[in-house]
Specification:
There is one protein chain. Helix content is 36%, strand content 20%. The protein is of the alpha+beta class and 151 residues long. It has a four-stranded antiparallel sheet. A hairpin with a 6-residue loop joins strand 2 and strand 3. Helix 2 packs across helix 3.
Length: 151
C-alpha cells in the first residue's frame, strides 16, 4: 500500500523523472536516506517499472502517425501469435495493443510523409498474416498524452 510519503515521491518523480534523489527527497519533504529506501522499495515491488526518454518523433521528421485497428481471421488458432510476431518486426510500428471485442489489435505507425506511409502500408502491413479487416485512423492532433497517475 502507498502512504502519503510514497505518493509525494511518485508525484514529484512523475513531474520530472530526471531530477536527482536529493531533489526528490526535498520536494517530498523526506530525509534523503528515507527517500532512497522508499524508491528502492517502489522499484523492487514493480510500482516503478523504469525511466526512459520520450522521443518527439515529429522533431525527427516523422510527420504522419496512423492508428490501424485490425480484425483478425481467427479461424486459425495461431492467428494472434503469428500476427503479433510479424507485426513486431515492422520497424515503423511503434506500438501494438490487443483488445477484447470486435477489434483484435491496434498498431501505431509513424512515417515521414504520406508517400512513405503508403509504402509501409502496402509492403509491410498488408503482408501481415491473418488480417480480415483494417481501419486506418490518421492522427490530426494529440490533445492529451499523459502517463501520470492522479496521486
Amino acid at each position: 500500500m502507498l502512504d502519503d510519503s510514497d505518493r509525494r515521491l511518485l508525484r514529484h518523480l512523475q513531474a520530472d523523472p530526471s531530477q536527482p534523489v536529493g531533489a526528490l527527497a526535498e520536494a517530498a519533504r523526506l530525509p534523503l536516506a528515507t527517500a532512497y529506501k522508499r524508491l528502492e522499495k517502489l522499484h523492487s515491488s514493480g510500482a516503478i517499472k523504469g525511466q526512459h526518454a520520450i522521443i518527439n518523433w515529429q522533431a525527427l521528421g516523422y510527420a504522419v502517425e496512423v492508428s490501424l485497428r485490425i480484425i483478425l481471421d481467427k479461424t486459425n488458432p495461431r492467428a494472434f501469435d503469428e500476427f503479433l510476431d510479424a507485426a513486431r518486426d515492422v520497424p515503423e510500428v511503434i506500438e501494438i495493443q490487443t483488445f477484447l471485442g470486435r477489434v483484435d489489435a491496434r498498431l501505431k505507425i509513424i512515417a515521414k510523409d504520406l508517400g512513405e506511409y503508403q509504402q509501409i502500408y502496402r509492403n509491410r502491413i498488408l503482408t501481415l498474416p491473418h488480417i480480415a479487416d483494417i481501419e486506418a485512423l490518421m492522427q490530426v492532433a494529440t490533445i492529451k498524452n499523459s502517463q501520470s497517475l492522479p496521486l
